[in-house]
Amino acid sequence: MFSKKATRDGGGSFQSMVTSRGGSTQNIQYIGRENETDYIARFSSSYDKRKTYETSKEELNRDVKRYNVFTNIKDETQNLLINASKAHKGAWIGPSMDMSLDDSKMSSEDAHIGYSKAWDNWKLSVAYDGLKDHALYKDTPLFFYKGAPIYKIESKAESSALSTELKYNTHIGDHHLITGARYRYKMIDFDLIQMNGLDVPKDGHTRQAVSSLFVEDSYAFAQNLVGTLGAQQSYVTNNGGYESDSLHMLRAGLTYTNDAWTSKSFFFHTEGYVEPYLIGSFYMKSAYPKKQELDSLAQEFKYEVGASLYEFFLSYSWIEDAPYVNENLRVDTALGMTEHLNTYMQYTYHYDAINKIMLAYRYKRIDHAGYDVIFRNHQLILRHQHRYRKLDFFEEMFVTHSEYYHNRGYDVTLGVRYNFSDNLLFTLKGQNLLGKGEKQILSRFDFSTLSFVEPLSVPIQERQVMLGFEWLF
């Protein structure tokens, strides 16, 4: 949506889809151009109806209804973007230890308004973001806290952020310099935080300001070899008696290309702070957690020869003072080093511009200092898409294995699109058709017997069939 242009994507479209579980999605949009100005208007509504799971009391609801309005007006120097959404969600299991909520409610409203103006080598951007949310959970009981049963928790909050950025970019010889400043002011107000109908004391941290200066230099060592070095210095101030902090960010990169190869190497150093909404929530201790420091190395290779494309990516990150939720349901600082390792290898063969087959392997490893466990996940994907006359076919098979959960899964997704005419398309798609995909295992505790009961096994991706059409006008 953010990159669409009237010269390339002009016109209107209406999309509608229904699912085998009773869900539906509708989107209508129009892209036009008037007096050298592009404009986009889009409205969408969706009802993501999910499979229900019965517990000792009622069915657990995790359906989501969402409405969204998006509009964008832009020309060569100015850009105005407005985006607003409203959602109602089923609370699923919430914080209930026996997974049998008596009552629940989750709703949210959010909005974004952004404007930017470019002139000469300068660009000014301003934006407003707002969020309103309400959460309610009731059970008999939800859980025990410090020996006392908790039957009900409820929160209502409104948050907003104002941000602005001034950026200057120029070329000096083989150097491309970008420098600037940005400022972001965050506000959150809890209208209500209650446990068992009693107000939870708030610590007063409701405001946070972040001021930053940044600079980046891209230097062309040769026509096909570019090095990048960037730095950012930020100063964070908080209200409520919390200390101010200084944060640093560094980035270095090297990109090489030729007729067949592309290589990208990066190093990142990032220091982060805790968002204000966590300070006043149920899941925060009174002491302000330490800022986390993340260092990361990443390497990407691409090699293309004939109809074949080979891709490889590897990243390794180590995090000091990573936040986590401790056994008392409070956000805490993990002692020690947390490590993340991600990698994927992918091979794609193009029969022609449209038809192709892809095979990929992905691996993720997380050693989190706070939980003293190692998560490992493997995934193998085979994907094929091809066209026969007016039909576009899509087939995908995947195999997953989670070593921590001792969980394996495999499944198939199939899809077909019928290009009835230049203006009318029909689609049919079935995902997780075998019902053998990887599952999430959720533990349950029965307070009447004070013992654990059979865990709930929930597919990460549900089996369902989707039928839809798109009309272009």
Supply the helix-strand structural class: mainly beta
Count of folded domains: 1
From the coordinates shown, what is the CATH architecture? Answer: Beta Barrel
Terminal CA distance reads 18 Å
CATH class: Mainly Beta
Overall body shape: globular
Structure notes:
It contains two helices and 29 strands. The protein has 473 residues and is mainly β. It has one domain (6-472): Beta Barrel (Maltoporin, Chain A). β4 and β5 (59-60) form a beta hairpin.
Summarize the structure.
About 0% of the residues lie in helices and about 70% in strands. The chain is mainly beta and about 475 residues long.
Keywords:
473 residues; mainly beta; 71% strand; 2 helices; Maltoporin, Chain A; two-stranded antiparallel ribbon; single chain; 22-stranded antiparallel barrel; 29 strands
List the helices and strands and how they pair.
Layout (H helix, E strand, L loop, with lengths): L5 H4 L1 E9 L4 E11 L2 E12 L4 E2 L4 E2 L3 E11 L3 E12 L13 E17 L2 E24 L2 E25 L2 E21 L2 E2 L7 E16 L2 E14 L6 E13 L3 E12 L3 H4 L12 E14 L2 E13 L2 E3 L5 E3 L3 E14 L5 E13 L4 E16 L2 E12 L4 E13 L4 E8 L7 E8 L4 E9 L4 E9 L1
Antiparallel strand pairs: 1-2, 1-29, 2-3, 3-6, 4-5, 6-7, 7-8, 8-9, 9-10, 10-11, 11-12, 11-13, 13-14, 14-15, 15-16, 16-17, 17-18, 18-21, 19-20, 21-22, 22-23, 23-24, 24-25, 25-26, 26-29, 27-28
